[in-house]
Design goal:
- Among the domains are: 1-48, no CATH class; 57-185, 2-Layer Sandwich (Alpha-Beta Plaits).
- The chain has 10 helices and 6 strands, in the order H-H-E-H-E-E-H-E-E-H-E-H-H-H-H-H.
- The protein has helices at residues 2-14, 23-30, 80-84, 122-126, 153-156, 160-166, 168-178, 184-202, 206-210, 221-253; strands spanning 57-61, 90-96, 103-113, 132-134, 150-151, 157-159.
- The structure holds iron/sulfur cluster (SF4) (2 copies).
- Residues 75-81, 92, 127, 129, 131-132 line the site of one iron/sulfur cluster.
Length: 254
């Protein structure tokens, strides 16, 4: 509007024509009180993006100095983000335990083709573990049209502290909803342990409760297969007993 145009000159006078030359004026003229048309000397200057701005996604990992799980990735490789992604640009390879061959809740590989990603944010919305977030880094252009824009797990991973910096309000709201700054599974486990300790203390056996639960024995693939077969056989035997009982009851009724 004409008023907007005039305000540009009013603001120029207010800053004593140092609107663009002094660094400390930069944040002020981009702030909520700034008036008039704003020119940004890109790429030396960049307009601050709002907190809810979204570009390509990134994967949340624990900070490097985390006391219990440094650099641990939050993604459990559940695959929900890959399912909901409209242009299908997410590719996940589920992690496996090298000893047992069983799946582990961690991606072995995670790729996003950022040329196909349409920045919709569905992946971040649907992730049940707050493990994928929308980044603010929009300077991703390059001359390479081959593999440079297929981001792998390393390139996608950024620490939780980064998310707190670019989206402090959202990060705080999410933390409150989860019940702490930890991964949802860690919070759940801690709550479970606290409940068990409280129960044991109530029963007068607090020291016993403190004792760590025996670690689950790691089975070899053959042992796992055998255990599975035994479980199946037991289930089938129980089913056969149930059927025989029902047939007997039916016969008695007649
Ligand atoms: S929805 Fe979240 S936890 Fe599941 S695979 Fe995607 S990023 Fe990982
Ligand atoms: S932002 Fe949208 S298009 Fe991009 S990876 Fe996530 S779901 Fe897919």
């Amino acid at each position: 509007t004409f008023r907007h145009f005039i305000e540009t000159y009013v603001d120029d006078i207010r800053y004593g024509f140092r609107k663009y030359s002094r660094d400390d004026n930069f944040e002020v003229r981009q702030g909520p009180k700034a008036k008039g048309a704003i020119t940004v000397q890109y790429p030396d200057e960049k307009i601050a993006v709002p907190e809810r701005f979204r570009f390509v996604p990134f994967l949340v990992v624990e900070d490097h100095d985390h006391p219990e799980r440094p650099d641990h990735i939050w993604c459990t490789s559940c695959g929900i983000c890959a399912k909901v992604c409209p242009p299908q640009c997410i590719w996940i390879v589920r992690g496996q335990d090298p000893n047992t061959g069983r799946p582990v809740p961690e991606p072995q590989a995670f790729f996003i083709d950022i040329d196909i990603c349409m920045n919709c944010g569905y992946c971040a919305e649907f992730c049940p573990f707050d493990a994928i977030k929308m980044d603010h880094d929009y300077e991703l252009a390059s001359y390479d049209r081959t593999s440079n824009h297929i981001f792998d797990k390393d390139r996608l991973s950024k620490p939780l502290s980064y998310w707190k910096t670019i989206a402090p309000t959202t990060a705080y709201e999410e933390m409150e909803a989860r019940g702490g700054w930890d991964h949802p599974d860690v919070i759940k486990e801690k709550k479970k342990q606290a409940r068990a300790a409280a129960k044991a203390a109530k029963a007068g056996s607090a020291p016993a409760a403190k004792k760590a639960a025996p670690a689950k024995k790691q089975l070899s693939p053959e042992e796992a297969e055998k255990a599975k077969a035994e479980r199946l056989a037991k289930r089938e035997a129980a089913l056969a007993r149930k059927r025989a009982r029902e047939a007997q009851e039916k016969q008695d009724g007649e």
